[in-house]
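Input sequence (93 aa), recorded before submission:
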Amino acid sequence: MKVTINVDCTPEEARTFMGLPDVTAAQKAVVDEWQRQALEAMSAMDPQSLFRAWVPGGMGGSMSGASGGSDAWDQFQKAFWAAMPDADKKSGK
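Predicted structure, token format:
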């Protein structure tokens, strides 16, 4: 025998019926804190430091005026272009 019962109620009504606690205030507090931390972290970031984190050795050379990461940047560019030896032939140039 198979019996199916459909109950039409809101999540709040179901929670109350099952005796579960209302954690809406705690959930809101946690989400608000996460949002505050995320906004604080984003406002502290500047594009130059992000780029330095993404590119080994930093920006380097002509882009920032610093010479600290120029060797690493040059090596990156050379490796990139070495991986595409026929790029200009395929484009029809």
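Checked by second reader. The chain is about 60% helix and 0% strand.
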